[in-house]
């Protein structure tokens, strides 16, 4: 695999966002609030990032908006069901 | 028991959370002179570019604060009286404490050139500073930025995104020369130019001109430039005067032991103002990093309640955007002196410049670049630009001092595909 290939493009990342939840790395977070500001349904993603808690909010659409907008790579998407292929 | 916390930044808030998390009763008073209380200081950069509304910078609601059960007292602490165990507020009111935390942060180094007090000369410490910048940007056409590090670029890009023409003056021959290597500096400089910033190397400000408002400046070589805004970020200085005047031990910042305690057992210090002893290296260092300020505030808060927790310093790192490029700096990556910064800058750590005995491994081109400082058995530092897929693994590998023997040769091989090697190492580690 070449250097460039291991980096997924945004498009493939979006496809992967299908079954799971958003998980923060609180040590990277500076509480700027871009995630909360951009959440289409108003989840306080930033508060989860402070606590280091996954966003297991029943209304989370896993749309990936917060993941894509965070300027510091705090948020990533984690699949809940390891036995399904998230890329399908 | 009465706890007083001076400063409403992240260190102060983390300390109060820690005091309460311990289930400790007692009265807590937070004293702060920023009328806006606690907000994300790094987020000010995104407010400048317009990516955020300023209301979004505030992480906490009134209810959150009510749960923590403390009193916020607006005001400036003007004196510490350690013998009386009291502080003076605005030179008149006195408040007594049993345990005190000094978490007053750092402030921008002032510009020492004639004209530095003119209207239109701006810096970026507070929300009010950011609002002032936006006010000038609405009327201004041309801005000149001086200084270095992250904040200089945040100023340049903030102004640029508001339609202001930006000139960036650098004293030396490249950007952030004591943290980035030459290749990385050039990547950032080229991107800045593409964004529309005009760079001027080997250029030094001598005087800011204008009657009451800035209208231009003179350089040390005699040339003049017209501008309406002069933005500076030449480094920061811990606000250590209160402590120094009170006879506490102060070096570059307020000196503390590994428990965040000063030489007065009832007084603690944390965050940007503190110069904290690190038992692992035997050094006392200053950081200006959000995550370390939070960690320090947390440990200080616990210890104020009578615990004895050692502050374990996480590897300093910063994820930031330089000229639109996400960049992570982990551990020790550079050395020497940057002519554009005095001392330390925002989002900076003294550790970044303690270049270890290491071999450099690097790969990448243009936007995706990785540079690793490869030690005997461990990785000592890393710079990751562009895609951040491997930055979290690298942060852990450096922080935990993981044994990298199994990938060391591959990393140092000619034309090594470093990112692939790291991903491979990390997947194997995760699988075990
Ligand atoms: C523009 C900018 C960009 C940054 N970028 C990054 C970044 O990319 N990454 C990163 O990790 N960090 C970054 N930082 C640094 C980070 O914000 C600081 O490390 C952190 O805020 C330090 O927290 P603190 O609580 O120690 O101090 P502060 O947040 O500075 O809070 C100190 C508080 O004390 C108050 N105070 C001061 N003196 C007195 C007094 N005498 N009486 C009463 N109150 C007083 C001040 O008003 C202030 O509210 C940035 C900071 C700025 C300003």
Quick description:
The complex is a heterodimer of chains A (88) and B (432). Chain A is an alpha+beta fold.
Which short descriptors sum up this protein?
heterodimer; A: 88 residues; alpha+beta; Alpha-Beta Plaits; 4 helices; 11% strand; globular; disordered C terminus; B: 432 residues; alpha/beta; five-stranded parallel sheet
Can you put this structure into words, describing what you see?
Helices cover 27% and strands 11% of the residues of chain A. Chain A has helices at 10-16, 34-38, 45-51, 65-69, and strands at 20-24, 75-79. The longest helix of chain A has 7 residues, at 10-16. Helices cover 27% and strands 28% of the residues of chain B. Chain B is globular, with a radius of gyration of 23 Å. Chain A binds chain B through residues 1-4, 6-8, 25, 27-34, 36-37, 46-47, 50, 71-74, 76, and chain B through 10, 40-43, 46, 51-53, 56-59, 290-291, 314, 319-321, 326, 328, 363-364, 368, 386-392, 395, 417-420, 423. The complex binds flavin-adenine dinucleotide (FAD). Flavin-adenine dinucleotide (FAD) binds at residues 6-12, 31-34, 41-42, 44-45, 76-77, 103-105, 124-125, 150-151, 154, 239, 242, 271-272, 288-291, 293, 318, 320, 346-347 of chain B.
SSE blueprint:
The complex is a heterodimer of chains A (88) and B (432).
Chain A: H1 10-16, E1 20-24, H2 34-38, H3 45-51, H4 65-69, E2 75-79
Antiparallel strand pairs in A: 1-2
Chain B: E1 2-6, H1 10-21, E2 27-32, H2 44-49, H3 62-68, E3 71-74, E4 77-81, E5 86-89, E6 93-96, E7 99-102, E8 106-108, E9 121-122, H4 127-139, E10 142-147, H5 149-161, E11 165-169, H6 182-195, E12 198-200, E13 205-209, E14 216-219, E15 224-226, E16 229-233, E17 236-238, H7 241-245, E18 254-256, E19 267-269, E20 274-278, E21 283-285, E22 287-288, H8 290-304, E23 317-322, E24 325-331, E25 348-349, E26 359-365, E27 368-374, E28 379-385, H9 391-399, H10 405-412, H11 418-431
Parallel strand pairs in B: 1-2, 1-7, 2-3, 7-19, 9-16, 10-11, 10-16, 11-12, 18-20
Antiparallel strand pairs in B: 4-5, 5-6, 8-17, 13-14, 14-15, 20-21, 22-25, 23-24, 24-28, 26-27, 27-28
Helix pairs in contact in B: 1-8, 10-11
Bound molecules: flavin-adenine dinucleotide (FAD).
């Amino acid at each position: 695999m070449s250097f460039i290939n291991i980096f997924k493009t945004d498009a493939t990342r979006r496809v992967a966002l299908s079954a799971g939840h958003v998980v923060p790395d609180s040590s990277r977070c500076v509480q700027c609030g871009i995630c909360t500001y951009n959440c289409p349904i108003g989840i306080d993603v930033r508060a989860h990032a402070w606590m280091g808690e996954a966003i297991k909010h029943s209304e989370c659409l896993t749309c990936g908006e917060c993941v894509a907008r965070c300027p510091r790579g705090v948020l990533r998407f984690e699949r809940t069901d390891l036995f399904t292929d998230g890329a399908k | 028991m009465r706890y007083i916390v001076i400063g409403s930044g992240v260190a102060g808030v983390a300390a109060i959370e820690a005091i309460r998390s311990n289930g400790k009763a007692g009265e807590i008073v937070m004293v702060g002179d920023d009328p806006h209380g606690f907000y994300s200081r790094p987020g000010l950069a995104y407010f400048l570019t317009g990516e955020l509304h300023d209301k979004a910078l505030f992480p906490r609601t009134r209810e959150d604060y009510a749960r923590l059960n403390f009193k916020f007292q607006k005001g400036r602490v003007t004196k510490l009286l350690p013998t009386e165990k009291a502080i003076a507020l605005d030179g008149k009111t006195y408040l007594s404490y049993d345990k005190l935390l000094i978490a007053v942060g750092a402030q921008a180094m002032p510009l020492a050139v004639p004209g530095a007090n003119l209207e239109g000369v701006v810096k970026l410490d507070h929300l009010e500073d950011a609002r002032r910048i936006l006010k000038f940007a609405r009327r201004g056409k041309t801005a000149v930025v001086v200084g270095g590090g992250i904040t200089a670029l945040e100023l340049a890009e903030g102004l640029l995104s508001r339609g202001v023409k930006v000139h960036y003056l650098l004293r030396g021959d490249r950007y952030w020369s004591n943290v980035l290597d030459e290749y990385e500096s050039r990547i950032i400089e080229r991107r800045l130019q593409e964004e529309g910033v005009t760079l001027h190397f080997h250029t030094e400000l001598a005087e800011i001109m204008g009657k009451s408002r800035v209208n231009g400046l003179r350089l040390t070589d005699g040339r003049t430039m017209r501008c309406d805004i002069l933005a500076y970020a030449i480094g920061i200085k811990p606000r250590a005067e209160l402590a120094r005047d009170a006879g506490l031990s102060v070096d570059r910042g307020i000196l503390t032991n590994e428990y965040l305690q000063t030489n007065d057992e009832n007084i603690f210090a944390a965050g940007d103002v503190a110069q904290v002893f690190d038992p692992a290296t035997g050094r006392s260092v200053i950081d200006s990093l959000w995550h370390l300020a939070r960690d320090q505030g947390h440990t200080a808060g616990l210890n104020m309640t009578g615990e004895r927790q050692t502050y374990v310093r996480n590897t300093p790192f910063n994820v930031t955007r330089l000229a639109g490029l996400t960049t992570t700096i982990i551990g020790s990556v550079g050395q020497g002196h940057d002519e554009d910064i005095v001392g330390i800058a925002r989002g900076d750590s003294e550790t970044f410049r303690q270049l270890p005995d290491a071999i450099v491994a690097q790969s990448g081109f243009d936007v995706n670049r990785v540079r690793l400082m490869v030690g005997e058995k461990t990785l000592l530092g890393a710079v990751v630009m562009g895609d951040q897929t491997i930055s979290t693994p690298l942060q852990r590998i450096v922080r935990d001092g993981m044994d990298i023997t199994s990938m060391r040769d591959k990393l140092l091989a000619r034309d090594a595909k470093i990112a692939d090697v790291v991903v491979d190492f990390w997947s194997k580690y995760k699988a075990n």
